[in-house]
Amino acid sequence: MAENPNPPHNPTGRPSKEAASPPKKYVRGPDDEIYKRKREKKPPKPPDLSKDLQQMMYGFGDAQEVDAESVEMVERLVRQYIDELLGEASAIASIRRCPLDSGCLLYAVRHDRLKFERARRLLEMKEVIRDARKKADEVEDVD
């Protein structure tokens, strides 16, 4: 590389600070305190279903003040069912070599005609609602 033909004026003859390498930035290393503290990831808390279940139980004929033990039992059953269903759907997804999606869930409930039809109708309604919102947003954008 060619030397600069017009070096900056330096009457002292000492090397200028400009010519020196830039100051080193501090880089964190494994000995720093931030690396010593390991952040423990807490598993996410499952959502509380008790209020929704109380309302559903009342809607299906239970007393207005539902027994807490009954709600806990139903919640355990619901969680167990969801775990089993998602486990089966996850196995289906791994066999299909695709991410877990609504198709995997539909395939998992295919033998129970009522559940299958209800899930299919809910997915269809989801699309209808999505399309309606999209059209409503387009109308708002035009105004």
- What's the overall geometry? elongated
Counting DSSP E segments of at least 2 residues, the number of strands comes to: 0
Q: Which structural category do the helix and sheet elements fall into?
A: mainly alpha
Question: Could you tell me the mean pLDDT?
Answer: 83
- The whole-angstrom Rg is 32 Å
Can you count the helices?
5
Order of helices and strands: HHHHH
Major beta-sheet overview: none
Residue stretches low in confidence (pLDDT < 50, at least 5 long) are none
Q: Ends: how far apart? A: 63 Å
Helical amount: 55-70%
DSSP strand content: under 5%
Organism: Pelagomonas calceolata
Protein name: Transcription initiation factor TFIID subunit 13
Family: Belongs to the TAF13 family.
Subcellular location: Nucleus
Structure description:
Helices cover 56% and strands 0% of the residues. By secondary structure, the chain is mostly helical. Among the domains are: 49-55 and 66-108, no CATH class; 112-143. Helix 3 packs across helix 4 (102-108). The chain is elongated, with a radius of gyration of 32 Å. 4% of the residues are buried. The mean pLDDT is 83.
